[in-house]
Amino acid sequence: MKKVFVFWDNSNIYISAKTVAVLREGGDAAYQVRIQFDNLLSLALAGRKLESAIAVGSVPPPMRHVWNRLEQAGVKVELFERGSLSAREQAVDQALQTYMLRTTIDNNGHPGIAVLLTGDGAGFLDGIGFHADLERMHKKGWGIEVLAWEKTCAARFRQWVEKIGVFVPLEDYYESLTFTEDDAGAIRRAKPLDLSKRKLTK
What we know:
Radius of gyration: 16 Å
Structural class: alpha/beta
Number of domains: 1
Order of helices and strands: EHHEHEHEHEHEHEHEE
CATH topology: Rossmann fold
Oligomer: single chain
Strand order of the largest sheet: 4-3-1-5-6-7
């Protein structure tokens, strides 16, 4: 059985979740939606043993307990400061791509399954971004699985993944992967995760 390696772009997952939340639950949900990290990791693994996982994201203090929980589950976390002028994260995508390429090289001759958690698939048409490195991994014999929000994922990127691997629309698991809360506490809790229809790389 091939080993499973998870590459997790938390910022893209969360930002795109806000878009989907508005469609599902109304405008306020954009500010109230949260990711149920344990269920998202379980969806990525789908009952398989984790070989390694890297999650990249930002460093706001309220997130620290979430990152701690991921680290306890065996996920390496790499955090980045936001730019002082742009307020955007710096070098997040590039860091995750570096880990993807290192993993490919370190396992040369022993390809595994790369599971990418992302939001948009940006850069497909230009041959850059995550797609370029997933294509390199695929050519080296790696199985490819992408978990992303279909609403915000680039259509051409999704179609490529569906052709060579497995694309998992996160909308299919929305109520298990998200919950909502405000300053007063929980509004909607996440439902238990059902993996019975989760497609896997053959």
